[in-house]
């Protein structure tokens, strides 16, 4: 009886420690794994050039799979080429909780985007294995393939891949079809989604902010309210090309002058509405592009984003109103062609509450904010509740060799990921 009492007290004490947020990851090991991962595609500037399907990406995937096996996960590659590590839960009736991110980079990118969330998810699994903790839910750790090329791996999970997309040439010089084959996937099985609504209990992702709010305000953790929706347009402005020396100023139909007015109008439209909506003109090209010719045509762009679709629509409506005025002033004609669209993905209230409770239990500071960048979580939101945890990015820099997050912030993020997972495992009943 005495022995049983001692065992019981130890168990109760252990549970109490976990409940108080004292179960922690190995931060040194997490940061070491990030440094090791950064060697695959390391650039002289200290960044990472590890585009999806490249040799560097394939070698990094092998490294990641080794870590996942060391974390006692059953590792496989799905038809899309995503790496999935699984561990059974104690309740066979429950759906898996999925955590993870991606390890591919943009060309000449940084060492933290996606990689922090991927390595932290593996570290969480390793911590649970070391402590011999079995969750109620099955655990799925996922490393999505080709997030930077348009969330290809997560799109395959939730929507399937459209036939024409397989022929898109990626930064690796491989088509998406060739790339998926190169990493062990099977593109012939991707006409339909690999998962459906209800297959997962939820998805949780840790990521660097890719913005400067947390760093500027010295906040430890960002609780993501949602991932913004976006509308992309290609804008063609048609004027009339003519001789720069002989065409009077009052007789010109200068497409570039119209474009200049348009750029200012986009900025003005986004600023005219209260909120956090953004609008950007990211590229502009004038034709014929000669010093001595009045530009007859300009091809430019429009990117509008917000968490609220009505705000996006309001900004676009204001831009269209300005375009009509610019056409009248300059004698030009605008053509607006929508090229891409995604709806906002609002994060789940239970997930936000669990993140907030975990942050407070760890004695950290937190701040709610939207994600202005797209993530795999945006695709996964179509089939299950999602949550996202942000850590600070120094000066808000991302997609650059200068991208940087402090080791202590990475450790904090890993601990919040672990604690949130434990809370959700108790709270979610499906």
Account of the 3D structure:
The protein has 430 residues and is α+β, with helices and mostly antiparallel strands. Helices cover 37% and strands 21% of the residues. The strands form 3 sheets. Strands 1, 2, 3, 4, 5, 6, 14, 15 and 16 form a 9-stranded mixed beta sheet that branches. It is elongated.
Q: What's the helix-strand series? A: HHHEEEHEHHEHEEEHEEEEHEEHEHEH
Report how far the terminal alpha carbons are from each other: 37 Å
Average pLDDT: 94
Number of strands: 16
Count of runs of 4 or more consecutive helical residues? 12
Rounded to an integer in angstroms, the radius of gyration calculated over CA atoms is 25 Å
Strand content bin: 15-25%
Tell the overall outline: elongated
Concise overview:
With 430 residues, this protein is of the alpha+beta class. The chain is built from 12 helices and 16 strands.
